[in-house]
């Protein structure tokens, strides 16, 4: 089953938020999703402990994934899930190389800053190395995160120019700076279980997450209308 690795060697790039949004949206579509939590902050595990059961058995989070355990845990989850998502630490490590090597698709979250762009560039360089030295080509995209639709900064434009110069695919949908994306880690649940009276523009956050998930499916050449059953047969 497809493995999607989320990677940026700089912490705070919005990586775990992107993992959570994609995982819950795919589960809402009917797919069985497993998340391997290799981030030492364990935010996705903490969220899951307060939210378990909201998506039935369609979403599972495996905590405390390490360099020594990832091969076994990945094999176990691939046998039971339609998608396996890997949330990595925001640093350079041998775990990064191994998780990227296992991926069918790598998503690189980047905020509009030079430091985030460099962290993303480190991942892109690793992907290029795998292609040049081992003839392993892994589809990958950058997704811009925490984007304020009302503000276009010089740094954000610089990031876009850098990606264009390197011919790196940029996911059409950006992850906006939205209250729901921040609050979901504190209150648990999903974008569809939150109280719209307490979270501003919740409908826009839901639309944003859905559009991002559709973009990812398209990049993996999986029709957005494909059912989980069809995906299992193809795999």
TrEMBL record:
Q: InterPro entries of this UniProt entry?
A: DNA_Partitioning_ATPase (IPR050678), P-loop_NTPase (IPR027417), VirC1 (IPR009744)
Q: Quick one: signal sequence residues?
A: none
- Sorted alphabetically, which Gene3D superfamilies does this protein's record hold? P-loop containing nucleotide triphosphate hydrolases (3.40.50.300)
List the CDD domains: ParAB_family
Could you tell me the keywords of this UniProt record? Plasmid
What Pfam families does its record include? VirC1
Q: Work out whether the entry's keyword set contains Transmembrane.
A: no
**Keyword Transmembrane belongs to the record:** no
**Protein name (Swiss-Prot/TrEMBL):** ParA family protein
UniProt organism field: Shinella sumterensis
